[in-house]
Write a structure and sequence with these properties.
Number of helices: 9
Strand content: 25-35%
CATH topology of the largest domain: Immunoglobulin-like
CATH class of the largest domain: Mainly Beta
Structural class: alpha+beta
Strand order of the largest sheet: 9-10-8-12-11
CATH architecture of the largest domain: Sandwich
Order of helices and strands: HHEHEEEEEEEHEEHEEHHHEEEEEHEEEE
Radius of gyration: 36 Å
Helix content: 10-25%
Number of strands: 21
Bound molecules: 2-acetamido-2-deoxy-beta-D-glucopyranose
Largest sheet: 5 strands, antiparallel
Length: 418
């Protein structure tokens, strides 16, 4: 029928119909032969979604056809500007496609170049609290998280009635960071979208993949200083370690930082914090990159020391102390009225562990005695003393500069004044 019409038209208006079958060929757009859906899809060979850019050469699309391509907005997070083309449309609202060029080489919105869609990872970090029945978040491997992500996106539409799910990341393990057994982080366009999720969790049964969403809140993307300040509140840092921590350079998260870069930056934060901590730590850092997995183990575990017993024997003070083999045991005392420069040797871990060894001999302002641990109870003994001393003991891995916590002796002070 159309062909017959066209033949008639050719007779009447030579040229127009011969040029194209498009219903409304745009002015200045030169069309090639119409492509079938399959030809088009094979030619562009998209990974997934298409990014369309006004161009001087590309494709001309015409909607409202009986059959052809579907052209939907992409649902993958951060691809709202992209379109998904699929074959097999027959709902009467299908898209036909022609290759095109613009006459005179100008740029036209009717002739669009096609590239693979570039996904945006949004800047707003959203922390989502869930209650999972069968499998905690921390027990999910990459495949589990991929499935979780697919169902999360589906539930956004079905449970929360969110139209543009492309405004939420979390489609797969790539954009889901598990924080705890009941907590994960992903990214969204802005804080209003976090509030929508929180409201949905409060008002409806927002449930998928055997997990119920309980709440959502935005999580500040920390700059390094905020992060470092927070780390310092955990008393794993001596003064010098604190300076080292602050001198780490991990880069900043900005609007143009990609998701991979964000992960690298946070990994750097974590690595830096673990590597500089020097008090009471036993921390395993696993660095994963696309090609290698490196595990750095920093074992700086302080041994447990039971209350050491102090006894005055003649003019000596003895300490009965026990720590596992491989540690150094140390006891330090400060004399009543001793020099002010030693005033903190029994209260400050750094002073305790850095004061030079000295057995105290008559009149000492302090004593600091140490030995390698034998693995069972052993005695540390001062030299002759003639004063009252307040004392503490501790133990740390031999050869380390770990500042292990101080342990009160029983009693906490002894007087050797005859
Ligand atoms: C999309 O990416 C694939 C490879 O991942 C490539 O073969 C194809 O040519 C790209 N398509 C376009 C339109 O750039
Ligand atoms: C999930 O983790 C919590 C907290 O560690 C624990 O109490 C719970 O039993 C775990 N549930 C499952 C299914 O592993
Ligand atoms: C990150 O931002 C802070 C504060 O704006 C700036 O002082 C610092 O130099 C930046 N660091 C890097 C690595 O760009
Ligand atoms: C001992 O600690 C106190 C309180 O932290 C501090 O003010 C004082 O300067 C310290 N003394 C020495 C000698 O470091
Ligand atoms: C302790 O002995 C030293 C050395 O004999 C002496 O100088 C000091 O005055 C004595 N101190 C006391 C408190 O007896
Ligand atoms: C521990 O043993 C090593 C090697 O035998 C020795 O050099 C070190 O001085 C000892 N440390 C103490 C506190 O006795």
């Amino acid at each position: 029928m159309k062909a017959a019409l066209c033949v008639l038209a050719v007779v009447a208006l030579a040229g127009l119909c011969a040029l194209t079958n498009a219903q409304s060929p745009p002015e200045g757009i030169v069309l090639g032969d119409e492509l079938t859906s399959t030809e088009f899809l094979n030619t562009v060979n998209l990974d997934n979604c298409a990014e369309l850019t006004d161009s001087s050469a590309g494709y001309y699309f015409e909607g409202g056809a009986a059959t052809g391509l579907t052209r939907d907005r992409c649902s993958v997070g951060g691809t709202c500007q992209c379109r998904q083309f699929t074959d097999g449309c027959d709902n009467g609202n299908c898209v036909r496609v022609w290759p095109c060029t613009v006459e005179g080489g100008g740029i036209s919105s009717a002739c669009q170049a096609i590239t693979n869609c570039t996904q945006t990872v949004f800047e707003t970090i959203m922390e989502v609290e869930v209650e999972c029945n069968r499998q905690n978040m921390t027990d999910k491997d990459e495949a589990d998280l991929d499935e979780f992500g697919a169902k999360w996106k589906q539930a956004l539409a079905e449970d929360c009635n969110i139209g543009r799910v492309c405004r939420y990341n979390g489609d797969s393990s790539d954009t889901i960071d598990v924080v705890a057994y009941n907590l994960f982080r992903t990214y969204t366009l802005n804080e209003a979208h976090v509030d929508d999720i929180d409201a949905c969790a409060a008002d409806t049964l927002f449930r998928f993949n055997r997990c119920t969403v309980l709440s959502a809140r935005s999580w500040p993307s920390p700059d390094f200083e905020t992060f470092a300040d927070c780390m310092l509140s955990y008393s794993h840092y001596s003064v010098s370690a604190r300076d080292q921590l602050y001198s780490c350079e991990c880069g900043n998260v900005t609007s143009s930082t990609t998701f991979d870069e964000i992960q690298d930056i946070f990994e750097c934060y974590r690595f830096c914090a673990a590597n500089t901590a020097d008090r009471n730590c036993d921390y395993v850092v696993t660095t994963t990159s696309t090609t290698t997995t490196t595990t750095t183990t920093t074992t700086l575990e302080c041994p447990t020391v039971e209350t050491p017993e102090a006894q005055v024997v003649y003019e000596f003070i003895t300490f009965g102390i026990s720590a596992p083999e491989g540690n150094e045991v140390r006891c330090v005392g400060y004399a009543d009225g001793g020099l002010a420069s030693y005033e903190n040797v029994t209260t400050d871990m750094e002073d305790f562990w850095t004061v030079p060894l000295f057995d105290g001999a008559y009149g000492g302002d302090y004593f600091a005695i140490a030995d390698n641990s034998t693995g069972s109870a052993q005695l540390l003994v001062t030299d002759n003393l003639n004063d009252t001393y307040t004392h503490v003991c501790s133990a740390r891995p031999a050869g380390s500069s770990q500042l292990c916590p101080l342990v009160m002796t029983d009693p906490t002070s002894s007087s050797t004044v005859a």
